[in-house]
Amino acid sequence: MKTIKLENQLLLPVFTFLQNVNLKANKASRGRTQLLKRLEEKSKEFNEALTEIRKEYFEVGKDDELVVVDGKYEFKDEKNKTTLEAELNGKVEELNKEHFEIQFGEYSTKYDALFIALDNLEIEISGQEAFAYNELMDAYEVNEDKKEEEK
Asked: What is the DSSP secondary structure assignment for residue 125, as one 8-state letter?
């Protein structure tokens, strides 16, 4: 089954790119809508994992929510804040580098149409958009390379 795999840290840039790119109302556009839904689900999972990591280091209230004071989370142990920050940053970085996977499944033809349309885009992109586009297309092309190898 076809899949795309990307690092968690690419969720937002890829989502934003797909949301902003202009496509005609056809299978490609419908594929984009389905992929955006799946990216939203993955983003929710990522944010839940991030919250769990934060709860290890920051104060949690009676409602099991992180305590925010003056717009910032409060460390559980202020004396060891520097050490805790380093640990926390390491875990967050690890989470950002983890890969998520989206299987094409029942939307395979729509996703394929989306990637064909993206490959044939004739627009200028730069910066974060170009980066997100490249990473997304690379993830798709890995599947295409595997498919060719299986023949």
From this structure: -
The answer to whether 34 and 104 have CB atoms below 8 angstroms apart is: no
Query: Which contiguous run of DSSP H or E holds residue 67?
Result: none
Chain centroid to Cα 37, Å, comes to 12
The CA distance from 56 to 84, in Å, is 10
Q: Residue 143 pLDDT > 80, yes or no?
A: no
Residue length of the chain: 151
Listed in sequence order, the residues at least 6 apart from 26 whose beta carbon sits closer than 8 Å to its beta carbon are 113, 117
Per residue in 61-94, pLDDT (tens digit) is 999 999 999 999 999 888 888 899 999 999 999 9
Q: What share of the chain is helix, strand, coil (3-state, %, to 5)?
A: 70, 10, 20
DSSP 8-state secondary structure symbol assigned to residue 82: H
Taking CA atoms, 70 is separated from 79, 93, 138, 145, 150, in Å, by: 19, 25, 42, 51, 57
The answer to whether residues 121 and 137 touch, using CB atoms and an 8 Å cutoff, is: no
Q: What is the pLDDT of residue 145?
A: 59
